[in-house]
Amino acid sequence: MGLRPAPSDEDKKRQVLNIQRPDSVVETRFDLPVTAMEFEIVDTIRNNDITIVCGETGSGKSTQVPAFLYEAGMSLSPDDPQSKFLIGITQPRRVAAVSTAKRVCYEMGQGDGQSIRGSFGKGNIVGYQTRYETAGLGDNTHIKFMTDGILLNEIQGDLLLRRYSVIVLDESHERNLNTDVLIGLLSVTVPLRKKAASENPSIVPLKLVLMSATLRVEDFTKNEKLFSSCPPAVVTVPGRTHPVTIHHSKVTELDDYETAAFKKVCKIHRKLPRGGILVFLTGKSEIVRMIKRLKHAFKIEGSARQVSCDVGEQHIDPATGSFPREVDDDEYDGDDLSTDDVDSLKSSLEDPTIPPSSDNDNIPLYACILPLYSLLSSEEQSKVFAPVPENHRLIVVATNIAETSITIPGISYVVDTGRQKCRNYNSGTGVASYDIMWISKAAADQRSGRAGRTGPGHCYRLYSSSLYSRHMDSFALPEVLTRPLEDVALSMKAMKISNISSFPFPTPPDRSQIDSAVKLLADIGCLDLSNVERDGGDGTITKLGLAVSELPLGVRYAKMLLVAAHSGVLDYAIVAVAALSESSPFSSHPSLESSEEKERLPNDEAEMDNVDSNLIKEREKLMKKKRKWFHSSGDLFAAISAIGAFTYAGRGAGGASEEHAARKFCEENGLNYTIMARIQKMRTHLAVLAKRRLGTAKGIAASSGCFSPKMSPPNKLQELLLIQSIASGLLDHIAVLAPPGSITGEHPADIRSAYIGCRSPADKPLFLDQGSSLFNRDYRQLPRWICYESVIRKMTKDGSYITVMKNITPIDPQWLGEISRDTRLITFGAVVGTPCPIYDPDKDAILCSVTTRYGSHGWLVSPVRVVMYDALAAPETKSTHDYLPDDSFRWFARYLWEGKVIPELANLAQLMNDSTELITRKTPSTKVVSLVGSLRDAGVDSAAALRKHWAQNDEKFLFQCLKCWVKPEHHATAKNMWINAVQQNVNIWKKNNC
Predict the structure, then answer these.
(1) What span, in angstroms and rounded, lies between the C-alpha atoms of 159 and 169?
(2) Are the beta carbons of 526 and 508 closer than 8 angstroms?
(3) What span, in angstroms and rounded, lies between the C-alpha atoms of 40 and 266?
(4) Residue 572 contacts residue 652 (beta carbons within 8 Å)
(5) Are residues 517 and 530 in the same domain?
């Protein structure tokens, strides 16, 4: 039991806020261990800048601590009770942020537990914000739940977080990337706020609370770099007293753990007393297969169980949508269904009714089976919290989302396979792979704790105690050690953090990870590394990088939209980015989602054989439908065509009619309605973003914040500009069809169809995905130059692995050098004679063409125009025979006399006694030498430099040279033209510099 602390002087100033809780809540919260420690927790937080609350599973910390802080008046200023601050609570997953906010709102008597509403414009005491969804926020809000990505964006705009008095980082033990960066930033924010509060009475110190069930406290208490000025206090909250019996398997099932889990669930359901069953699997496809097998098993056994199987539609609403930038949700929970899973999905959606019969009244007659993973909609996820019908046993088949983020009521039995799906990222090659791996001991303990929330429970671990004790890691690796850092690195650079490697991460990432992030940002032009040796650090952010960092998108996608906005194809780029943010709309089997085509599972093997043959036919039909979308410009254009047709199909009908039309269109055309609907929501979100951040761009999205269902396909020019926009974000993902003999060694695929990546070793070939629009078994039909969105390892029939490229787009090397000119992927060589140098008014410089090579392999691409003076000064151009060191002044003189530099001299060429081409010939005349020498001696090879020389040194500069070039009869005209031009340009210089 916690004791009420002695009131301090500061406490006397504080106002205590009362909560009118529902009677049922008042009764149940006394059973929560954290309630007994309310005063100890509040007192520790109030008297320490940083507090760590370690509460075991079931202690109630996630719902009660925010209420404690509110009741203690910690959202009010002690000097001015009318001045209000926010108590901010972050969660690593959207489902947890939303469900916890709704629960806290209900417990505080402010909602019904299903939604959060407030008075118009004023909000509720409790509100929440996720990437797309906001509810209850307003002037009345004291407690704000959010995903960690939301707070990360806020801290970029205000490092002191002046709107908040307390920040609570819940589930800190998950150590995802955003949370670790937040902890590092907040370790700086807390002392800065404390100093600001001492200087300004209107500001209160910021309190930071790290809250977790299984936190390695020493990562924070012993991290001198992190909390050197204010070491954290620690409060430990005990868990519930309900015992959980752990049952380990005698032998670990290493291969078919799904079958082991299936058998264990069946045994529990047949023999053990009432109580829900929670099964932990690794992903969506496993969940679907398990639900199908459970239903089938209960039926063919003739057991007295009715299975009410409700997979529901696996769609994403705005609260749980996938998005390129934020990393706050499990992206591996929603793995694509393979063709082998079609029958699983099909049969799992059935709902057979079987007459019940049972002799044991304590064993439920029926089963209600529900899935749970992060990519389910909020509505589908909420079904696991609903009351279970009488005489039913709840069986939840879930990913690790059910491990700590949410609590499912009534669970008495946990079946733990001991696995989870992890996205492993190779910082050297850029290859991402989704691998099934063992969980940590901490995760295993969390899973077992799910069985003891409401009473005694049992956890059946499908692995041996030896594996648990000897082979499982104590804790999972922090995400910062396993994920790419480019998004976070760019945001940190925008915050003027010069050296990312010295940033106070709770667990510093490996230097190779930081180098990979910096390398990628430099490759796409967001960072400049030219002064690293002189200034130290990790490079400086470029203008492009600043613009990219202002868009809440992944760096690649943000650059694509910026380039597209500049090129006038933003509306099409929004569709492309929306498609890139989701799975392929062609990858599933939408025809099997139709309720009219749901069939009962066959009872014998002969019928199963019929299903297999029918499945093959359905696959063939699906492939035929898929091929109709194939596009010569690549996979993204196939998706763009399908998305445009999908949008047009349901236009204007409204409501259910529009959805019905869209579903029917998908069924008829081999598209996945769920994914298409998600893409549409992403498209809507990006259109709103375009209006807010890219409002000056051309197009419907930038002007109105929406998109037209009647948008026509891009024409040839728009297609080219869109391809360039896409490639601009994938500059380090350029590949070339490998020349014969360039790849050696044994490889499992046809080496003639192999590609070499611009940043990949020559002995690491890449291959087209067989589902790509561009895939062709005849290597002679393959495009030579391509860009790709990602690569992933795939197993071939013989069990070996190849690296496969996804979302492929053919490109033209003619413009590749130009779109990558400001990146470190380009290497410039000698100046070439053709095309001739030009004067560029926008750059105010003479530009010449130079030999250009791309990537690590030095592929020759079309010449790029660069500033001629810089090119001629470079060491590699000294041996060129085409140009001399002062030729930039020659070409400037020629274009000056031709009126292309100073507009007021546009008619000067008509008064000349010789052609201006004389100036750039190899054997110059005396007057050419005089003119060019004057410019060279004065250092004038731009309009700006000429104006400055006229204004500061000599307004008659070059006039004597001009006389030699003008016919005698035109001297007076030329003099007047010259005086006017000089005067106008001197005025321009004075206006710009005074």
Answers:
(1) 16
(2) no
(3) 45
(4) no
(5) yes
Gap between the Cα atoms of 97 and 95, Å rounded = 6
Same domain, 253 and 393: yes
Give the CA-trace dihedral at 31, 36, 37, 43, to 10 degrees.
130
- C-alpha closest to that of 921 among 901, 893, 899, 896: 893
- 500-523: burial string, b at 16+ Cβ within 10 Å, e else: beebbbbbbbeeebbbbbbbbbbb
The answer on 736 and 642 residing in a single domain is no
**Residue listed under structure tokens 């045994």:** 267
876 in any annotated domain:
no
Secondary structure (DSSP) of 269-320:
HHHS-S-EEEEE-SSHHHHHHHHHHHHHHHHHTT-S-EEEE--------TTS
Please name the residues in contact with 745: beta carbons below 8 A apart, sequence gap of 6 or more. Answer: 763
**CA pair distance 664, 671, nearest whole angstrom:** 10
Q: How far apart, in whole angstroms, are the C-alpha atoms of residue 863 and residue 882?
A: 15
- R_g of the chain, CA atoms, integer Å: 33
pLDDT band for 590, please (50, 70, 90 cuts). Answer: very low
Residue pLDDT, tens place only, 440-477: 998 999 899 888 877 889 999 999 999 999 999 988 88
Mean pLDDT confidence for 502-516: 84
**Cβ count near 595 (within 10 Å):** 6
- What DSSP string describes 897-955? HTTSSSGGGTTGGGGBSS-GGGGGSSS--HHHHHHHHHHHHHT--SHHHHHHHHHHT-T
Residue 836: how many other CB atoms lie within 10 Å: 10
Helix 887-897 vs helix 926-938: angle between axes, to the nearest 10 degrees? 110
Q: Which two tokens stand for residue 249?
A: 């398997």
- Go through 50-82 and write b for each residue having 16 or more CB atoms within 10 A of its CB, e for each that does not: bbbbbbbbbbbbbbbbbbbbbbbbbbbbbeeee
880 lies in a domain?
A: no
Q: Are residues 360 and 270 in the same domain?
A: yes
Choosing from 178, 210, 237, the residue where a domain stops is 237
Backbone conformation region of residue 125, classed left if phi is above 0, alpha if psi is from -120 to 50, else beta: alpha
| Token pair 């008046």: residue | 73
Q: Give kind and range of the element (H or E) at residue 420.
A: strand 419-425
Provide CB contacts within 8 A for 51, sequence distance 6+. Answer: 41, 44, 45, 207, 208, 209, 210, 232, 233, 234, 235
Indicate the SS3 state at residue 519.
Answer: helix
Asked, for residue 4, whether it belongs to a domain, the answer is: no
Q: Cβ distance 816 to 854 under 8 Å?
A: yes
Question: Which class for 160: exposed (0-12), middle (13-18), buried (19 or more C-beta within 10 A)?
Answer: middle
On whether the CB atoms of residues 167 and 90 are closer than 8 A, the answer is: yes
Which residues are CB-neighbours of 421 under 8 A, at least 6 positions away?
Answer: 282, 283, 332, 333, 335, 399, 434, 435, 436, 437
The helix (H) or strand (E) run that includes residue 23 is helix 23-29
Determine the 3-state secondary structure of 544 from DSSP.
helix
Max mean pLDDT among 175-184, 402-411, 910-919 falls in: 910-919
Distance in angstroms (rounded) separating the CA atoms of residues 366 and 359? 13
Residue pLDDT, tens place only, 358-377 = 456 678 778 899 998 877 77
| Neighbour count for residue 635 (Cβ, 10 Å) | 28
Closest among 809, 823, 808 to 722, alpha carbons compared: 809
Indicate whether 531 and 576 sit together in one domain: no
Is the CB of residue 319 less than 8 Å from the CB of residue 133?
A: yes
Supply the DSSP symbol for 835.
S
What's the pTM?
0.65
Helix, strand, or coil here: 457? strand
Strand runs labelled E in 758-877: 766-768, 785-795, 801-810, 826-831, 838-840, 845-854, 859-867
Q: Which residues pair with 88 in a beta bridge?
A: 144, 167
| Per-residue pLDDT at 607 exceeds 60 | no
The CATH number assigned to the domain holding 30 equals 3.40.50.300
